[in-house]
Amino acid sequence: MLIEAKHIQKTYKNSRGIRVEAVKDASLRLEEGQTVGLLGSSGSGKSTIGQMLVGQFPPDRGEILYRGQPLKYPYRGAERREIQILYQHPEVSFNPRLTLYSSMIEPYRLMKRRVDREVLIEDIRQFGLYAEHLDRFPGELSGGELQRAALARILVMEPRMIVLDEPTSMLDVISQAQVIQILRRVQQTRHTAYLFITHNEALCEAFSHRIYTISEGVVSER
Predict the structure, then answer these.
(1) 57 pLDDT higher than 90
(2) What is the pTM of this model?
(3) CA distance linking residue 21 with residue 163, whole number of Å
(4) Is residue 71 packed enough to be buried (19+ CB in 10 Å), middle (13-18) or exposed (0-12)?
(5) Any long-range contacts for 104-111 (C-beta under 8 Å, 24+ apart)?
(6) How far apart are CA 195 and CA 85, in angstroms?
(7) DSSP codes, 62-83
């Protein structure tokens, strides 16, 4: 077992100060090298679960175990590196004032890996990106290009698990297929686990090994 959530809950206060239960009762598990789908409509609480799993904030109740041990917030060390998230809107992962090259070298430095332009060119080629992309700013890239760059950047950290939060919903059909193909290839070669958060039932069924559904903050397994 890689990660397991046990009866986690999360409550927010809305703009009027009223308490809203975003996640009422969620239990799910994810094994090494597995893709687990989390299928639900907008506002069902699925993204909140993903954010709790990657350590953006803790659950109000329940617990999350990683490799059998309770996670402590904020995540540090290996846990922070090994649990990553790919957002629905890839532009949030990049500083709009930096070129792609400047953004891409950051994780290499964090991992103390040698990096220069030639290394980056070689690494991004497998994601359908090329030398000319490195000199562009995020706003000059298409949604598909930016999402592939975000994934390439995450993988430098050598994650064991990636929360995929609607990673293809903002892309055209061709770009969706490219991202899914890359994710499958990465899983085959690196044995990376995915929590695939989506509202697209057909894609969820095609891409996932197991599926959970969420409705009004309550999770159940199919």
Answers:
(1) yes
(2) 0.93
(3) 22
(4) buried
(5) 104/134, 104/149, 104/152, 104/153, 106/153, 107/153, 107/154, 107/156, 107/157, 108/156, 110/157, 111/81, 111/156, 111/157, 111/158
(6) 9
(7) EEEEETTEE--SSP-HHHHHHE
